[in-house]
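Quick one: co-fold with coenzyme A.
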Amino acid sequence: MLIRYKKTFEKIAMGLLSFMPSEKDLKKLQQTIKQYEAVDNWQLFLWKQEDIIGLIGVSFPNDTSMEIQHISVNPSHRHQGIGKNMVKALKELYPEKTFQATEDTAEFLGKCDFEGILTQGRE
Ligand SMILES: CC(C)(COP(=O)(O)OP(=O)(O)OC[C@H]1O[C@@H](n2cnc3c(N)ncnc32)[C@H](O)[C@@H]1OP(=O)(O)O)[C@@H](O)C(=O)NCCC(=O)NCCS
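Sure, here it is.
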């Protein structure tokens, strides 16, 4: 299930974020986590089964849309549908929002959209 980021999850969240190609540099990674902690329209979620094994980070550029900025799954748990499940759960949490990708997430989200995950429930 999707849970909201808290400071106590900082280490695990940084570990997961570091799998994003754009977050390889430690300074950049620390800056990104700080932004999720400090900026109201940036929200970070974690995917918890027994352990925390996934992360999805979004921003809200305006009232109607949501931009998926970061998405990452622990390498030992990939190819089991967790990435897609996180997108689906987020869509259920924010059914009114139009989802957007960034350059860093477009490739995988394009795949989700292709499978109807992002468009489910939309008119
Ligand atoms: C992208 C990521 C989150 C997918 O997580 P996952 O739990 O394995 O995803 P799912 O099991 O729901 O879907 C797997 C499918 O997504 C596709 N996929 C995986 N990574 C992809 C990528 N970077 N771009 C496009 N499609 C991708 C594959 O077709 C895969 O199918 P397969 O299992 O038949 O090989 C994971 O690979 C990851 O953490 N990557 C490193 C971080 C990253 O690069 N994030 C940005 C991606 S654009």
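If it helps, DSSP finds four helices and five strands in the chain.
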